[in-house]
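Proteins fold reproducibly. Consider a sample protein:
=====
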Amino acid sequence: MNIQIFGIKKCFDTKKAERYFKERKIKYQFIDLTLKGLSKGELQSVKSSIGLNDLINNEAKDFKKLNLHKITTPSIREELLLSNPSLYKTPIVRNGKQATLGYQPEIWKAWE
């Protein structure tokens, strides 16, 4: 199992996800989205499990600032996500080719 948690340190659900894996003594890698976003390959992998529109946080300040609600072209939305990591809903928890969004312990249990 190779767990990666993409999130923001201040996010409550990200903290809960980290606690979930710590309590079960499962090693994970935390990637702080305020410092480093997803790579293009990581985004493609996550997108195949979750879907592009589900990854976007409609409540983010940058969502309104960038007029993302008016942009419907998937490739442009992807580029905006890659260049603005603050647009992601968090946490994104990845295990190889599988990924979840938010706090999903029932799915993570199946990964163990």
